[in-house]
Amino acid sequence: MTLVAVSKTVPAETLVAGVAAGLDLLGENRVQEAEGKRPRVPGARWQLVGPLQSNKVRRALATFEAIQTVDSLALARRIGRQAMEDGRTVPVLLQVNVDRDPAKAGYVPEALIAELPELVAVEGLRVDGLMTVGRLVATAEEARPTFAALRALSDGLRADEPRLGRGLSMGMSDDFEVAVEEGATIVRLGRVLFGERPAA
Ligand SMILES: *Cc1c(COP(=O)(O)O)cnc(C)c1O
């Protein structure tokens, strides 16, 4: 189980204390915010858990060791190209909009099924698995079908495509226990570690 401590809006000083307490993997939603904090938090590794625009790929790869939010072939290829230029392989997750929420980023399942062969063939990437952001629900239990569906999608896809990794990034502060029961390998926790965020 991998814990990504989601540190958006959390000041660098707090993160320094978090790293001293044993958190080493931080997740940020925005390239610029992470760029600003990274030099002030030695010893941390960073992953992008928010949306990535193509024109920020170069900067993103300078800051993040992995990108959890790949949701198009164009973006995958752009990351792969930059990775090759940088002489590295970038671990990524494919973001899935399991709930077909029009307000959410990510592949709807049938679009992912269609593009997966091309996605796993992109040079410079290693596709470690799938990621989803659950719907806002009143109780953690209501999120279970979303997590179960991501797990089932992963199992089905991997039966035909062994190059897709088994990683499942799902579960946040309000529902991570349920996500773990449904097979999460990565949980992304913000508020439960750092407290409530200021209202946006
Ligand atoms: C903010 C955020 C989290 C953490 O949410 P909490 O509810 O604070 O645990 C996890 N994943 C993503 C993509 C986020 O944007």
Give a count of the beta strands, DSSP E runs of length 2 or more: 8
Please give the count of helices.
8
SSE order: EHEHEHEHEHEHEHEH
Distinct compounds present: pyridoxal-5'-phosphate
- Low-confidence parts lasting 5 or more residues at pLDDT below 50? none
Q: Structural class given helices, strands, pairing?
A: alpha/beta
Cα-to-Cα separation, first versus last residue: 30 Å
Read across the widest sheet, the strand sequence of neighbours is 7-6-5-4-3-2-1-8
Mass-distribution shape: globular
**How is the biggest beta sheet arranged?**
8 strands, parallel
Helix content: 25-40%
Q: Please state the average pLDDT score.
A: 97
Strand content: 15-25%
Radius of gyration: 16 Å
Short description:
The chain has eight helices and eight strands.
Which key phrases capture this entry?
alpha/beta; eight-stranded parallel sheet; 8 helices; 38% helix; 19% strand; binds pyridoxal-5'-phosphate; 200 residues; 8 strands
3D architecture notes:
With 200 residues, this protein is an alpha/beta fold. It has eight helices and eight strands. It has helices spanning 12-20, 31-37, 57-63, 73-86, 109-120, 144-160, 176-181, 191-194, and strands at 2-6, 25-28, 45-48, 66-70, 90-95, 125-131, 167-169, 186-189. The longest helix has 17 residues, at 144-160. The mean pLDDT is 97. The structure holds pyridoxal-5'-phosphate (PLP). The site of pyridoxal-5'-phosphate (PLP) has 14 residues, from strand 8 and helix 8.
